[in-house]
Amino acid sequence: MNPTQTTLAPAVQTSFINAANQSITVRGIPFAYRDTGPTGGVPLVLFNHWGAVLDNFDPAIIDGLAQTRRVITTDYRGIGGSGGTAPLTVGEMAQDAIELIQALGFKRVDVLGFSLGGFVAQDIALKAPQLVRRLILTGTGPAGGSGIDRVGSVTWPLMLKGLLTLRDPKVYLFFTSTANGRRAASEYLQRLKARRKNRDKRPTPAAFLRQLQAITAWGKQTPDDLEHLQTPTLVVNGDNDVMVPSGNSRALGERIPNAQLVLYEDAGHGSIFQYHADFVARALTFLDD
């Protein structure tokens, strides 16, 4: 493959809500991304959840990480500002990600994946171990993990509940029903609205459904040989994840050699958003170790 590249603007120390929308072409397909934080050092590349676009990255987490790290956030193929058709497998998403990283000119990166992004991050590390220095897996699970192939059946009723209660479905999908969970959900959703100009495009229904097929296939896939994954890994989740059951994070912690596991109490799928300050501190300590 010979990816082509636009002229890259240097990373700058700016808030994520003001970061410029940029694009790079890989195999004739434009991929949307934002670049924040100081130049130099090993870049940190982030991959987000099912149906997420650039404006679904939590500004509190991006800004926290970008205090000392160059942070690249991106849209998957066929989602948001990226062109092409959304892939039907996690493997295709991972291959896109590898070629995107190479097109950006990075020889070695750290990778952080949330939910679907955690599936993609694992596959990147397995396919291109020389490319990934450190790995952070949040709200996610291994291929063939428990309940992952049933994400759709869990999600649709809670999306309907959000519609009927006039609330964003992420209130029910990402957070617990406790006072702490509800407060964290409200604060998180307000942060996602902070960017006023040049917001990303929303995902199309077709792309949303194609990504669900990729998630379901990952849940039915033969388990990967994670015991041979030598990349230092930090695994983070809440103790009550209804989307990717928390036992999957425990399994990652057990199967990946020398992995560190953090399970936040009274937290769900979006634990890193609920405990964003603590998560950023832990992530930076892990990356700088």
Please describe what this structure looks like.
This protein is an alpha/beta fold and 289 residues long. The chain has a single domain (16-288), classed as 3-Layer(aba) Sandwich (Rossmann fold), CATH 3.40.50. 38% of the residues lie in helices and 16% in strands. The protein contains ten helices and eight strands. It has helices at residues 59-65, 90-103, 116-127, 151-165, 170-174, 179-192, 205-220, 247-255, 271-274, 276-288, and strands at 22-26, 29-36, 44-47, 71-74, 109-114, 132-138, 233-238, 260-264. The protein has an eight-stranded mixed beta sheet with strand order 1-2-4-3-5-6-7-8, sandwiched between helices. Helix 1 (59-65) runs parallel beside helix 10 and helix 2 (90-103) crosses helix 3. The longest helix is centred in the C-terminal third of the chain and has 16 residues, at 205-220. It is globular. Residues 1-11 have low confidence and may be disordered. Residues 43-273 form the AB hydrolase-1 domain.
